[in-house]
Amino acid sequence: MAKILAVLFTLAVLCLAPLFGTEVQAQILPPEMAQRIGAAAEQGRQHKAAMSDVIDERRQGANRQLETVVVAAINQRPDLFQPIMLEAHRQAPESRATLNKTVAGMFPGFAGTLRSPTIAPPPRAQDGQETLAATRTRPGHDPRAQAIAGVPPPDQRPEDWPILPKEGGVDGYADMDPLEGLNKVFFYTNGVLDFIIFEPLADGYRYITPEGARKAISRAFDNLTSPITFANDLLQFRFQRAATTFSRFVINSTVGVLGLFDVAAELGLEGHSSDFGQTLYTYGVGDGIYLVLPLFGPTTARDAVGIGIDSLLDPRSWFIGSTERLALFAGEGITRREELIDPIDFLVEHADNSYDAVRAWTFQQREFELTGECARRTRTVCSAR
Predict the structure, then answer these.
(1) What is the mean pLDDT of residues 19-35?
(2) Do 180 and 327 sit in the same domain of this protein?
(3) Is residue 308 part of a domain?
(4) Which one of 72, 75, 171, 195 has the largest count of C-beta atoms within 10 Å of its C-beta?
(5) Exposed, middle or buried: residue 230 (CB in 10 Å: 0-12, 13-18, 19+)?
(6) pLDDT digits over 66-80, tens only?
(7) Distances, alpha carbon 42 to alpha carbons 55, 94, 315, in Å
């Protein structure tokens, strides 16, 4: 009889453990954190209701305010990951799927503990259908190249968008990443900062600034980098390009009203960019190892040196004070982040591994900048140097 009671008691504990476990987890969540999550969930619902006519379809199912608070809370107290997510799911069950996807992207180590109703298991091959293994062995088939449903193929996308590794996008830095563990720490830390600070600022900037004004501001910042381009043109012994850069800077800074208007392009003087990393490349310096720098993001050892030298070549470092320079760089950062909203959203939405996808995208863009020989629309076959 005692054994039977013991078995029944054990079964009862196992059946009721999830309920008690949830209650215990809820109790260990600090009250002020639970209050912030609840307030953010309600604020997000009100925001979506007020902005339903202007926000795009992809963001309709998301609760941006809740996601921001949850990511910040997990970053502050990763040991409370489960109770934080349970509280967020309780406060906003309608946003569970998008919240899980965002959190999985920000904190991949916790991804296995999340369950999203929107993620379905891959279909199994039926009798008579070709299996994945057979497809991989089919002659001429690239197992990396997979079409993404509802997404234009690489040759029909904007030129600055990534081509994902699963689509055949080349990642020439994959074998140059000996510091992958440390790089991932900086990568995901940068991702959290971007999610909490820079992306909301870029979204707000896009919302309140007309497209024409955004393009003019972007041209003005491009004009401010002309001295860096000019110096590197000279260092690369490309004197004709240097003359073009100098002429563009003079014309656009005067007639073009500080670069807001690209008058020089209308006169046949097309712009280009040049940096000290490119200069080192022309001298035969190799990429070095792949690095992810705090705030600056993905680069290589050679180009990291180039970033430092370019900052010394920038006249803004000489003639304006530190406060004004910081404000100017912050404004440029928000402008550049706004230009990347759509391609980054595409990458986050469709990449199997955001770290690998960003590394491949970095290589693809840099390959074109360095060589000019790999057309952007055919980057899937861009050969590694």
Answers:
(1) 60
(2) yes
(3) yes
(4) 171
(5) buried
(6) 888 888 788 777 778
(7) 18, 12, 47
Tell me which DSSP letter residue 291 carries. E
Integer Cα distance of 103 and 284 in angstroms? 42
What tokens appear for 368 in the block? 């074109």
Residue 358 lies in a domain: yes
- DSSP conformation letters of 326-374: HHHHHHHHHHHHHHTHHHHHHHHHH-S-HHHHHHHHHHHHHHHHHHS-S
**Residues 90, 219: one domain?**
no
For all residues of the chain together, what is the average pLDDT? 78
Full domain range(s) for residue 46:
15-113
- Total structural domains within the chain: 2
Q: How far apart are CA 191 and CA 185, in angstroms?
A: 10
pTM of the model: 0.67
**Co-location of 188 and 319 in the same domain:** yes
Would you say 270 and 229 are in contact if contact means Cβ atoms under 8 Å apart?
no
Whether 140 maps to a domain, the answer reads no
**For residue 191, is it within any domain?**
yes
Q: Could you tell me where the beta strands, DSSP code E, fall in the chain?
A: 290-293, 297-300
